[in-house]
Amino acid sequence: MKVSVIVTVKNEGEAIRPLLDSLIQQSQPPDELVICDGGSTDDTLEILTEYKTWLPLNILVAPGSNISQGRNIAIAAAAGPIIAATDAGVVLAPYWLEELVRPIVAGETAVTSGWFEPDPYTDFEVVMGSTVLPTRRDIVPEKFLPSSRSVAFLKSAWEAVGGYPEWLDYSEDLVFDFALREQYGAFPFVDTAVAYFRPRSDLTGYFKQYYHYARGDGKANLWPKRHLVRYFTYLVGLPYILRLIWREKWPGWVLLLLGSGVYCQKPAQRLWSNTWGWRPPSRLRAFALIPIIRLVGDVAKMIGYPVGLLWRLRHRELVNGNR
Question: pTM of the prediction?
Answer without folding.
Answer: 0.91
